[in-house]
Amino acid sequence: MVNYLLPVLFVVLAWWAGTALILHLDGLPRATYARSMRQATVAMLIALVGLAWSADSRDTLAAYLAFGSALVVWGWLEMSFLMGFITGPRKRACDESARSWRRFRAALGTLLYHELALLLGGLLVLTVTWRESNQVGLWTYLVLWVMRTSAKLNVFLGVRNLSEAFLPEHLRYLESYFRRAPMNGFFPFAVSLATIILTLMLLRMPAADIDHFGFTGVLLVSCLLFLAVLEHWCMVIPFPVDALWSMGLRSRRQAVPDRGLGRASRRGRTIRVSTGPAVARPLLLAEALHRDLAASTPERPGP
């Protein structure tokens, strides 16, 4: 039972905590992005060393190390996109008149450099693990890459839940390339193919010729693929996906309506306050209200 439970818990925790951490860092002020990327770069270099060190080992610990290292490499690439360092040549909203192939080309232009970075990242992982006995890291990266590409295509073609809350302010123009719809024709094909591959992987685990390393590696990658399939289903079912990572989203700046705060503003404006330390929040709000009152109160005529 432990042989099954430990890899599953490891994957779920790494998947949830890694996503929450990236969302948290991405929600901080942009002045912190350079520091976060420097720290993430150090972590990625360590992860590449971990991939290289574990590549020729068939120890169970090496399977965990390769899996975790691939996640860190992928996390660096995701951070570089969400923080705006590696995106694409097009940094504006989609033209309302764009349709079909023109709309697809415009959408590709918003993340072209990021897609090339993902390709280079995959080639780097492939190079580090080339012809080695431990391919857990490579398979982990491939699952992330393929399923993320599928998710992007589905959001572009149309799904119920777009998870636009994950986008930072400087990438809000990407929402114009999303399409909200109950489902699209590509979704059943993508989910069915992924489910078939997942089933074949799970059927492989009880094989007599698979050792403990192979069992652990297959289970780790299978759990990741299962979570990716689950994320796909969350696109089309009425489920609040954002709630899963509410902890990571707390660092984002929130728009706080002025209703319920008296008649401080007669024009229905929105006061933006930072979700920073709890002690600073009342001071920022009071200062904003004071400015709003001064702007909205007409001057009294002199005597």
Number of helices: 10
The biggest sheet, with number of strands, parallel, antiparallel or mixed sense and barrel status, is: 2 strands, antiparallel
Q: What order do the helices and strands follow?
A: HHHHHHHHHEEH
- Total strands: the figure is 2
Q: How large is the radius of gyration?
A: 23 Å
Low-confidence stretches: 254-290, 292-303
What is the domain total for the residues? 2
Physical arrangement of strands within the biggest beta sheet: 1-2
Instruction: Tell the overall outline.
Output: globular
User: What's the helical proportion of residues?
Assistant: 55-70%
Mean pLDDT: 85
Explain what the structure shows.
By secondary structure, the chain is mostly helical. The chain has 2 domains: 2-249, no CATH class; 254-296, no CATH class. It has helices at 2-27, 33-54, 60-82, 100-110, 112-128, 136-157, 186-204, 212-234, 246-249, 280-296; strands at 254-257, 270-273. It has a two-stranded antiparallel sheet with strand order 1-2. The longest helix is centred in the N-terminal third of the chain and has 26 residues, at 2-27. The chain is globular and about 55 Å long. Residues 254-290 and 292-303 have low confidence and may be disordered.
Quick summary:
By secondary structure, the chain is an all-alpha fold.
